[in-house]
Amino acid sequence: MKKGMIKVSVMYPNIDGKKFDMDYYISSHVPLVSKTLGDVLQGASFDKGLSGGAPGTPATYVAMANLFFNSMEEFGNAFAVAAPIFIGDLPNFTDIEPVVQISTVVI
After folding, report:
1. Total tally of structural domains belonging to the chain
2. Are 97 and 12 spatial neighbours (Cβ–Cβ below 8 Å)?
3. Can you give the CATH number for the domain in which 17 is found?
4. pTM greater than the 0.85 cutoff
């Protein structure tokens, strides 16, 4: 990704007693994200948590998505339409409230 791009990270905390259906996430939600955002989405990665920083500890996040956009304006316009669609799909794979961070790529 290039310096100055907007990175939207959507992280799903690993919380005991909460559900996360990775198969649905990968087979249905990820394609929904890509299709809904279309050409505005400049790149993305979708990760599954393996472990925490210390050996033998659980991952802080069960899953994480990183979505890249050219500008805040493009991101804002895309998410104004997409957010209700994505939020509506959440119950199909998780009961975890995602943590979202918006960043700019500096290197």
Report:
1. 1
2. no
3. 3.30.70.100
4. yes
Residues 6+ apart with CB under 8 A from 13: 60, 61, 62, 96, 99
Decide: helix, strand or coil at residue 69: strand
Q: 48: domain range? A: 6-104
Name the token pair of 11: 């992280």
pLDDT score of 96 = 98
- pLDDT, tens digit (0-9, with 9 covering 90-100), for 12-38: 999 999 999 999 999 999 999 999 999
Which two tokens mark 2?
Answer: 């290039």
Residue in the block written with tokens 């659980």:
58
Give residue 42's identity as a one-letter amino acid code.
Answer: Q
How many Å is the Cα radius of gyration of the chain? 14
Residue 1 lies in a domain: no
